[in-house]
Specification:
This protein has 13 helices and 18 strands. The protein has 422 residues and is an alpha+beta fold.
Amino acid sequence: MKYDIAIIGGGPAGMMAAGRAGELGAGVVLLEKNSKLGIKLLATGGGRSNITNIRNNRELADSFGSKGHWLLSGLNKFGPKELIEFFNKRGLKTKIEEENRVFPKSNSARDVLQVLIDYLKSSKVDVKLGFEVKRIVRIENKIKKLILSDGREIVADKFIVCSGGKSYPSTGSTGDAYKWLKHLGHRIVSPRPSLTPIILRDKFIKDLEGLSLKEVKISCYQNNKKLCSSVGPVIFTADGLSGPVILNMSEIIGREDPKDLQIKIDFFPNLDFSQLDRKLREEFNSSSKMLKNALSQLVPPRLVDTLINLSGINSQKKLNLITREERKALHHLLKEFNLTVFGLAGYDRAMITAGGVDLKEVNSRTMQSKIIENLYLAGEILDLNGPTGGYNLQLCWTSGYLAGEGALFESRFLNNYLLLKP
């Protein structure tokens, strides 16, 4: 059977593209190699699905860094406001939480997925589960057909690739499309894990596993030159650090040689060096408490032994007997807790993949390839990635929506599109 549009990938971008194209009258097939749609979507936002960020379009685009301007025209067409309206009118109520993050009121990613599944049904999309694409066949400057793993073929006029990157490979994101697209002539910016935990060399980190700090300052240095700094929550893992601040910082660290990188934690970001020193002097000079007990009132108890071991001070020593040099050593640890970077966690722990199809080769208004005439691209396969907080899902929604519409241009469905366009 021949289709008007064939879409590879049943994630957020693929479902949005398929639903929109079908809604406008195209005959659409959506190919997903897993047995279910949206497996990775169900894991977003800790299972709650942080669907977008309600910042204005320009600020949202700027959050993607120097390449973010590429997305701005798309956001003006289908941005956070339009996305929220899309879900609200289909029965999904939403709420705004801290840092402008938008979640379903039900706190359930499954409810988000169900809206998309219903959208596909109402748009008469032919959903094929367990259909794995093995090869794309091109004749001259156009794709002719898709060859599936079982030898069957899918023929269509237009093709949209939304197969994601390489993060969370257990969900089926194995990066197969990179080699297909490279073979078709696209330039692929080298993929790498992003929004992923940082791995450290320091052996004592294992002792802090599970410790969560609400408001600390994290700074990254390379050869004593500060690369970046941010304040927020951090979590110690068995081999390093995680949490929103760390995940966002991993994008910067991923571009550098890890052997020269260090992380410094400031446990008291609201106090400068002199203010913290004054606080310690007042505490130490007027108390006969043991150091261990006193530190437990300043920092989380699980951190105390590590601080004392690194300072070299006897944990049973009374505060009023601690020397100036010992106090300075503690002071330094509390303001510049130094850690050595080993590298980043792999794709199995990365939220997204950085790198992908060079944006210069994709029309930002329609998502059409500038290399292959009847090819469109959307979602994580593109060389564009943002911080945590709903930004990367918004990229999927926006690019998927534009691709679904864009694939109708220069076809016999253009008239339907013009009639249905609000």
